[in-house]
Amino acid sequence: MSLLRVTNLTKDFGGLRAVAGLSFELNSGEILGLIGPNGAGKTTAFNLIAGFLPPTSGEVFFGGENIVGLKPHAVVKRGIARTFQIVKPFRKLPVLENVTLAAFLHESGRARAEAEARRMLEVVGLSGHADRNASDLTLGEQKRLEIARALATRPKIVLLDEPMGGLNPTEIDEACQLVLKIRGQGVTVVLVEHHMKAIMRISDRVVVLHHGVKIGDGPPAEIVQNRDVVAAYLGEGAAHA
């Protein structure tokens, strides 16, 4: 049985249909890339899955349970965490405290929550920045902090919304390695990203949205040959990039 199953998920904003009948399955241990042009409905899909928006129609099954209608905190408690395209740390708090607060979701004691937070900072490569204020971090470091906070909630699935946006080539390579490391620790990953070389390199499978409609779903090598996807988003040179 798939870990996550999205069925006919639809979201209307007035007369605009942002997501239209989206269906896909996610298997445990996968890295799934979710791509498409700006305005394709990718972040809206994340918001629907994570409980930040109610769907107009459709279902989201996680571990066999329909989680539509649950609030974000209840979705996180069950094991789906997410990051945001625009990072949202507690800027005036130290890095360690940012992650410790997330760890309290499952840890009632301060010592255990802080120990878990330190472990997550080690995972994302921020252990040397534990005492710095979040506002003092670079953009790349703040994105890693965002991921550490998500991981501290002990997710089975983490939804990463453009974790490579605004990063330089070296930071993008490091972010790719981090995504692979997260999967290696048993967390299933769904990744929204515009850096095509990166997402095609690390994804097991890619789902493509265009105007809220799924126009492709398959392994990267298949997606770059898909004529609908090439015409809508990738461009004619994608297969040779």
Question: Summary?
Answer:
The chain has 9 helices and 10 strands. It has 241 residues and is an alpha/beta fold. The two termini are 35 Å apart.
Q: Note the beta-strand portion.
A: 15-25%
Distance between the first and last residues' Cα: 35 Å
How many helical elements?
9
Low-pLDDT residue spans: 237-241
Strand order of the largest sheet: 6-7-8-3-9-10
Portion in helices: 25-40%
How would the blueprint of this fold be written?
Layout: E1 4-13, E2 16-26, E3 31-35, H1 42-49, E4 57-62, E5 65-66, H2 72-78, E6 80-82, H3 95-103, H4 110-124, H5 139-151, E7 157-161, H6 169-184, E8 188-192, H7 196-202, E9 205-210, E10 213-218, H8 220-223, H9 227-234
Parallel strand pairs: 3-8, 3-9, 6-7, 7-8
Antiparallel strand pairs: 1-2, 1-4, 4-5, 9-10
